[in-house]
């Protein structure tokens, strides 16, 4: 039978997708490969694939997976580890490996073949994964490092990078395979025979090192030489050696563990493991380095050949065996950061004699790579800033105590090229001093760093302002991914604040495949949980901020729910269920009074204040009461717990949470709903929208409560946003759900204060921390915070473009395509790569018609809401749509609802 399918394979770990994704197809049209195959130390990795076909209505009927110990066996269709046979199922994501027990280091090769209602596919191209080191006894290596007299561990700490090396001999037999397992804290860079291993930067991923320490694995077979070899490692401080003392958590000075396993063709094994025989120095070119202050690099101290053999290391010291970091040493499942993009600067000016200001044209996160020529000892200083002052000099007040500066000392004579290794900056402008003459633009390149992940979404509309805001969001979101989602990338903070990412994470998940990152962050949150159940506001807890509230720690549940909805992955919910329950119970027992959650801490953080210089409003009429935030969130989260308990197999808990949430709703309505006026508490938009969106408002009051939201927004705030971080998470969808997409659109496109457009018109190329970020106190006005995006991106994809899960569906198994063709927009193009494949909704208004291109991936179906005029569909149009493959279901307001099987379709109706 002719094969009409292309299959892409994904391998995922029990908690998080990992390993290698092989994009394969029968006719090999796509050969995209995800690099950086991770090591895995979970006994049952999960396997996923994607079915691609040009044929419509393709549904998987069964699958057949083979997992083999060698490629040869796999090619012979010999699944010696696992042969599922034909399994009748439409499941194509997260199939748990169920074959023979997998021990450390086993390399597994796998492929899949699917039967569909339209025929059978060929076997996919093989993909593979490799097991990590599953048992502590697999490690022969020990942790090494040492303290140096130059380490300064008070105040702004100053600790130079450590260089470690180990020469070793291999015999002349052919090497079959060589694997390096390594973890260097805070950061490592590693080399074999002078060549850098891997393209990761700022690795490994940051954790609470007293709880968990992540190692990386590399296949280094191609790097080894017969005879003499050398391995070299540089260690930076990262989050392991404190950037500030006291204030930011300090673990220890840098240390590392590395194990290089070499297998010869004849089966002999040789292990080169970190131990006291390694040599160490702190006299290399990278001096002090940290994320807040920057890096100092003295090229005169370079040690050519230090990571090769031979090299004279007689002046180096002996490494010492040091204490363990404390946390469990385990495979890193989320991907490392790397240079993901580059930016060419757009201008350079001389703000004062010898002081040059480089403009990158974009507030970006990463560093500057430069080419420079000068004399030995010339000292160049690079200071990074997001903004300029009126006189053209850089504005650094909003960096607080972060120096955010790099220093480069030239070795002289030839062209030198450099970028830092163990720091990063959030910046648009760089002040350059110490140059002998005006440098030219072509000497510089901005390197953008964040966690390796695919950009999965695309959104473009006929409105340039929405496009610009979207672009700002895109830059802000990716710039704040660094193994955790940070609040900001520039000042002396850069922490994983939970509240900032609650609903935002869902919007982000349309743009990026952030599955691994957020699954990892949930682990960080769990590790940060206190013995008594309290969940802190920051994770990993480099800052110990634990204030007990529902809105920040609530992100723990909201993000687990997001991973289920957006990626169809319920494992995070199951894994974290006990900790989540413990937290909910802790909050209830401690702070619930008569079914009202009395405790809150941050309020509706960063709402637009009454006067431009304020950070926080003091006007009681703008402030949403603590217990209103606490109780609405408690109710919403209890309902998530009902869902989670059912998924995790605790029906009694589900019932308990459901009953309790009913009592909370009742108490809340009797205390805060003003029945005669139809609003909650003091009638803030936030109080009303949370109650409405979370389903607390009695049916009879929904309309009037919504009317109050609209009135407040239009009359008191002239069609502008009046909420902070909490209310904004529900606002845009709430307005659309109740029929006021026009008002949501107005809020989205406003250019006057407060609005995202106001930020744009005031020069923002990312999203600000404050609506009034250009006028408020610099103590808290990061120009690159994403928290105020709220549900804007979810709304843009889910409502303007119209791509969401159909009710009851997760992971876009059944898609809802329901665009809102609001006045003012002529077209919206949205696409998003779900776990099943590309979902597309491109619509435009043309000559009174609504023209719509949609794509529904194989093995999914869609509920398609076709907008029509006058609440009815023209019979001819209906016939055409049915002819295209749609099944007419019903009319729903101004939509004709059809169901469609997989495929691409072009629809047209008169508006
Ligand atoms: C600020 C952070 C963050 C916010 C907390 C409450 O310092 O930048 O965005 O969540 O405060």
UniProtKB/TrEMBL annotation:
It holds the Pfam family Ig_Rha78A_N. Residues 173-340 form the Bacterial alpha-L-rhamnosidase N-terminal domain. Keywords: Hydrolase. Residues 455-798 form the Alpha-L-rhamnosidase six-hairpin glycosidase domain. Residues 802-878 form the Alpha-L-rhamnosidase C-terminal domain. GO terms for biological process: carbohydrate metabolic process. The keyword Transmembrane does not apply. GO terms for molecular function: alpha-L-rhamnosidase activity. Residues 351-450 form the Alpha-L-rhamnosidase concanavalin-like domain. InterPro entries: 6-hairpin_glycosidase_sf, 6hp_glycosidase-like_sf, Alpha_rhamnosid, Bac_rhamnosid6H, Bac_rhamnosid_C, Bac_rhamnosid_N, Ig-like_fold, Rhamnosid_concanavalin. Its EC number is 3.2.1.40. It is an enzyme of class 3 (hydrolase). It catalyses: Hydrolysis of terminal non-reducing alpha-L-rhamnose residues in alpha-L-rhamnosides. PANTHER family: ALPHA-RHAMNOSIDASE (EUROFUNG), ALPHA-RHAMNOSIDASE (EUROFUNG)-RELATED. This is alpha-L-rhamnosidase. It comes from Bacteroides fragilis. The lineage of its organism: Bacteria, Pseudomonadati, Bacteroidota, Bacteroidia, Bacteroidales.
